[in-house]
Amino acid sequence: MKRIPVEASRKYDVLVGYGILENAGGYCREVIEPCKALIITDSNVEPLYSDTVTASLLNSGYSVFHYVFTAGERSKNIHTLTAILEFAAENRFTRTDIFVALGGGVTGDIAGLAAALYQRGIRYVQVPTTFLAAIDSSVGGKTAINLIAGKNLAGAFWQPSLVICDCDTFKTLPDSVFADGTAEAIKYGMITELPLFEQFEHGSISRDLDNIVTSCVNIKRRLVSRDEYDRGARQLLNFGHTIGHAIEKLSGYSISHGNAISIGMVMMSRAAEQMSMTREPCSKRLSRALERHGLETECPYKAGELLEAVLGDKKRSGDEITLVIPTRPGKCRLHTVPTGDIERILELGLKRGDE
Fold first, then answer.
1. Do 179 and 61 sit in the same domain of this protein?
2. pLDDT tens-digit profile of 118-138?
3. What residues are paired with 43 via a beta bridge?
């Protein structure tokens, strides 16, 4: 098992290994005395892992409660959030107790926000069960729900007390869900670590998942320690996300996060090349790497359709928006542009290199 320390407003460890879910209670007890624990999970994950985590918490002296919501991005809303808060209040949870987010990114985001809000802040533990959540949403303290106007528009920064990542949970993922995590892992390689990108471009990853998770978490850990509240270097993690979130919204979330981000990264790479902002071409290499792992790279929407959703993105500041521009595989930079330039950038991103 690997233990990765995260330096933020709350210091905590990310545990990465195989078969560690059965000792979740013991790991929790290392940092939090036995108390009430509310396991928050969804209808897909509950029958798979809830019993294991419950038994481990009980054996470690915790009193365990459960809240299960309907699986899917559409549950990441104010109604689910309110229901969790009401459940905690009805069962007399206090700030000495904990929430346990057991599941993928939707669960981690909404449970984390509930923890940030309940009695102005209660401790919580992230137990990601998807590749995507393990390398992305479970680390760094970003919590959120979606609003009708767009994705992740209501949220808070609230760091977990512990992250427990058992890579064995990835074995139960459908290929399409695993691919969502692959998109984010390729993103990490693109923004700062060429060897990681090349592993997805050319190599096999199935036998190296714990090391890949560790590499991605270490990249995010470094950026979070420099910029916890997302005002500078941490924004590099948004590569592909401004366009990707717009695609998700326009599709009614029928296009998955990973596929939307995949398309967004390719579009931004194409636009950067056509605006002579890259040191070397990267969009074709990026497309091949993504497609190799079953991800979409072509956008089904026109620039005008994307524009309104992009302008509603939370990364917009006044009449400007900060984009992440690839200069080459393994290196990206931040570039702020006037919102009036966005439609043209989208149009360039929709053009293939051979057009």
1. no
2. 999 999 999 999 999 999 999
3. none
